[in-house]
Amino acid sequence: MAASNAPACFGGDEIIMVVDSINGEGEHTSIAINAAGNPVIYYYAADQGALKVAVIG
User: Fold this and answer.
1) Strands 15-16 and 27-33: what pairing?
2) Number of domains within the chain
3) Who has greater pLDDT, 53 or 56?
4) Which of 25, 33, 35, 56 is least surrounded by CB atoms within 10 angstroms?
5) Which domain holds residue 31?
6) Are 39 and 56 contacting, i.e. CB atoms less than 8 angstroms apart?
7) Which of 19-23, 46-50, 53-57 has the lowest mean pLDDT?
């Protein structure tokens, strides 16, 4: 997941965040924008059998 502090995503100061780095993470992903305008990523963690959510903002 990448985030930027500039609305147009330019400026050279973007931030890269690792949400999960375990094998099997990130299957069946979906992305949406919440009411505050922040990206929300839903993904399935196969090793845990769990649906997970990552939110920026």
Assistant:
1) unpaired
2) 1
3) 53
4) 35
5) 22-57
6) yes
7) 19-23
